[in-house]
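User: Second chain of the day. Same drill as before.
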Amino acid sequence: MFAIGLPEGSEWLWIILAVVILFGPRKIPELARSLGRSIGEFKRAKEEFRREMQTAIEEKPPTDSKS
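Assistant: Same format as last time:
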């Protein structure tokens, strides 16, 4: 109910079969490793961005010396 539009049940079987036919069984582990590396890189970039934003928020704004 919450995952409207996502494959369920036998649809996964067809998706897996299509992947095996398109890429072949030897290529699938390489694709999985690449996907894992990409996800890890995305998580690291997201964490670095969060840290940079937190640092920017915690910094004091520059004081105006003209007044």
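Residues 59 and 65 are 18 Å apart (CA to CA).

User: Great, on to the next one.
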